[in-house]
Amino acid sequence: MANCVSDISFIICGNVIKNVESWPHLGHVITNNGSDKLIGEVNNVICWFNKLDCYTKTRLLKSYCCSFYGCELWNLTNLDVQTLRVALRQTLRRI
User: Fold this and answer.
1) Angle at 90 between CA 60 and CA 62, to 5 degrees
2) Could you tell me how far CA 68 lies from the centroid of its own chain?
3) Cα–Cα distance between 93 and 95 in angstroms, integer?
4) Which residue in 56, 73, 81, 90 could disulfide with 52, CB within 3.0 to 4.6 Å?
């Protein structure tokens, strides 16, 4: 049987690290299901910088919208990750 992430406990210096649904980090909210409010951030970039060329908008997208902290730990077969991939491809087509 596979363990669920909520079944795993981490201990650092004798202190148990609690599992949470989301956590703010450097102005970015990290969630346990991979959703990062990407669409809202993308819409802001496209709205504010709509007069710029697509190369510049793509670089802004990478800088402001694609900070996926902890993505190395994601289960790539999860449907939420697939949804994120689709959203990123749609965003690149919009730009």
Assistant:
1) 20
2) 4
3) 5
4) 56
CA distance 69 to 73: 9
3-class DSSP assignment, residue 33: coil
The dihedral built from the CA positions of residue 24, 27, 30 and 36, taken in this order, carries a sign that is positive
The alpha helices in 23-53, defined as continuous H runs, are 38-48
If you search the block for the tokens 């981490």, which residue do you land on?
10
Q: What is the distance between the alpha carbons of residues 59 and 45, in angstroms, rounded to a whole number?
A: 10
The answer to whether the pTM exceeds 0.90 is no
Other C-beta atoms lying within 10 Å of the C-beta of residue 67: 15
Residue whose C-alpha is closest to residue 65's, from 52, 78, 82, 90: 90
User: What does the block give as tokens for 59?
Assistant: 């670089």
Query: Phi and psi at residue 42, in whole multiples of 5°?
Result: -65, -45
